[in-house]
Amino acid sequence: MPDTHSTQFAAELVSLKSQISGAKLPPDLSVKALDMLSRLERMVDTGVYSAEYDRSAHYINWITHLPWGIYTQDKLDITQAASAMNASHYGMIETKDRILEYLATLKLRASQGGETSPRAPAIFLVGLVGTGKTTFAYSLANTLGRKLARIPFGGLGSARDLRGKSRLFAEAEPGAIVKAIRDAGSMNPIILLDEIDRVGVEERADIMGVLVELLDPTQNNRFLDHYLDYPLDLSQVLFVATANNTTNVATAVLDRLEIIQMPSYTDEEKTHISQDFLLPKALKDAGLLASQLTIDPAVWPVVTRPLGYDAGIRTLERTINALTRRVAREVVEGKAQTVKIDMANYKQYMKAY
């Protein structure tokens, strides 16, 4: 092999050694990594390379980029937490109460000199499309001051997507759980298990089996990813699962989740959400000032229910976004600088349902 290649490999070994020494690896995993590095050094010295070189270098890269020993500090101010959740989501009293109760428990345990990091609960948000399940998980991460990583279950092909693939296979890599930990940059993030009811029928049993291990507090302190081949402590991870319903979720998984029903929104709640959350955001996205658009109160029932009853707010959000875009076009074209939408002209600004 040319000398230039040998020089490149030697430089890579120096980088890998630096990564191992700089990472806070568990002692036994550090020994394993250094043993791998020794074998790689012998390959470089003898000039005999094999597929093992790439596999081992890739493995060392992975384990040294995981956030071993890194934990974020939870925000335990109940008043601030309530304000933060109210600022991002209207209503949902029961859902917010569950979170505040969890925070109160953490705060009391810490004040009494008990365990400051008790096992995090596994929360299951169940509700119809558009009721705010996914967005609430992001709001929860902001409220607690934790990192968040999302795993969409709609695209999972097999349990190996969650648990990883053995390094004996070509192009092996860790599973979605390890990737989520790496992306979050801490060992106690919120991991959003999004739409766990959308798993395919063929792989459902295997994937549900992995979920049981992830969510069971007696098992998830030694979760084994097949690629890492080293147990990970996931006991401080706060898992938040979502689903439209529980029909396709295994009973064993349900038994390990704290189910919180996400309520459907009434027309009155939708009007509040529109005025306080959706319209200000839509105005900003459209480049409009609040003073440039006025909506008559009589129009809101038509805006919130253009197609009949809808449990969520996605259609409502699309309606308001379309409305503000039409107003923005009129402003740009010089037809008007301010617009008032009332029962006489609302059809000009809404989709023709």
From TrEMBL:
Biological processes per GO annotation: protein quality control for misfolded or incompletely synthesized proteins
Source species, domain of life: Bacteria
Gene3D superfamilies with a match to the protein in the record: 1.10.8.60, P-loop containing nucleotide triphosphate hydrolases
AAA+ ATPase domain location: 119-263
GO molecular function: ATP binding; ATP hydrolysis activity; ATP-dependent peptidase activity; serine-type endopeptidase activity
Annotated coiled-coil segments of the chain: none
PANTHER family membership: LON PROTEASE, LON PROTEASE HOMOLOG, MITOCHONDRIAL
Name of the molecule in the record: AAA+ ATPase domain-containing protein
